[in-house]
Known about the structure:
Elements: H1 4-12, H2 17-24, H3 28-41, H4 53-60, H5 75-82, H6 89-103, H7 110-120
Amino acid sequence: MTKYREILRLHSQGISNRIIAASINCSRNTVRIVLERAKEIGILWPLPDSMAEQALEEALFQKRPISLKCKIPDFEFIHKELAKNGVTLSLLWNEYCEQCRMEASRPLMYSQFCHHYAVCGTKQGNTPHCS
């Protein structure tokens, strides 16, 4: 777990990001991101003693509501198309992605597309979601 308190404490003492990263064994990018987020939301050192590391992490990196719903492919259509000569799952996935682009919707990644096709196939009622 990243030591956010320590990053803020060392930064307040004027220590460089490179040295902070080395001292707490994380990347310089992590230090930079933590300091940028702290500045954006107005978190300054010293922190209240009551603020635990977990609370600091939640304050710095609040979970943003992101829609993870993807456009669900028509698995019946895919199953019928695969019966034709020269049609592959990869080709159908490319067509599905193009259709999603035209509709401005989010497609499944190829691995998810294949997984959900294998799991759901032509079963009705199963609606896969992005994970």
